[in-house]
Amino acid sequence: MNSPSWPVELVEGDVVLRPIKARDQRAWREVNRRNRDWLRPWEATIPPPTPAGPIAHRPTYRQMVRHLRAEANAGRMLPFVIEYQGRLVGQLTVAGITWGSMCSGHVGYWVDESVAGRGVMPTSVALVVDHCFRTVGLHRIEVCIRPENGPSRRVVEKLGFREEGLRPRYLHIDGAWRDHLVFALTAEEVPEGLLARWQRRRSQGPRQNTPGDSSPNAPRNSA
To answer: Which of 107-130 are b and which e, b meaning 16 or more Cβ less than 10 Å from the residue's Cβ?
Structure first.
């Protein structure tokens, strides 16, 4: 039985977030191929195997979708694709959803370079944070970003996320263990909604807006 929190479609103007599907494979692959150089520095990779650990392989598209859908059905993830003006331009995933005394999740994302600077990613993140706080019932959302990833950092800075500190060698990105900065928001910090905050700041003009407001991060920030 469907719940109000998933599956769901989130819409604001030309930006649409909807559940990822197997039939998105051709469009998803085309966007990834065309953005190979743009995405590679921020893309999650598989670390080398160790004697005690299993050998891991990068999943196929269909394996990835099956995993994401299973996690969504279990209530641990919200896997979206991003559409802009009717075209698939990226991916955004809320992962690591934890209940109990934490009620938290973390957001990862990537977007097509061709739509960078149009507000697509800040709008997408704001939509999903509002959904997580108001409908899903989470209390805290976290985004982890490599310090070198200026475009992605500008997304969370524009939206008013707090910087909480550095996690050394946190994720395996682009072939090595990389440091990540942690940014977070709690529901109490955006009582008016994050989308409303973003729209207000955006309407106040260029002094409130830093150029390059789209992130090339892969889905774990990967976001």
So the answer is: bbbbbbbebbebbbbbbbbbbbbb
**DSSP code of 133?**
I
Query: What does DSSP say about strands 162-173 and 140-145: parallel, antiparallel, or unpaired?
Result: unpaired
In this structure, the chain runs to a length of: 223
For the chain, the domains span 10-208
By mean pLDDT, which of 2-6, 7-11, 54-58, 163-167 is the weakest?
54-58
- Residue 209: CB atoms within 10 A of its CB come to 17
Neighbour order of strands in the sheet with 87-98: 10-12, 15-19, 78-84, 87-98, 104-111, 140-145, 176-186, 162-173
In this prediction, residues 63-86 reach a mean pLDDT of 97
pLDDT for 133: 98
pLDDT score of 210:
30
pLDDT of the residue at 55:
60
The b/e string for 8-20 (b: 16+ C-beta within 10 A; e otherwise) is bebebeebbbbbb
Choose among 59, 69, 75, 57: nearest CA to 22.
69
> How is domain 10-208 classified at the CATH fold level?
Aminopeptidase (3.40.630)
Cα–Cα distance, 56 to 110 (Å, whole number): 23
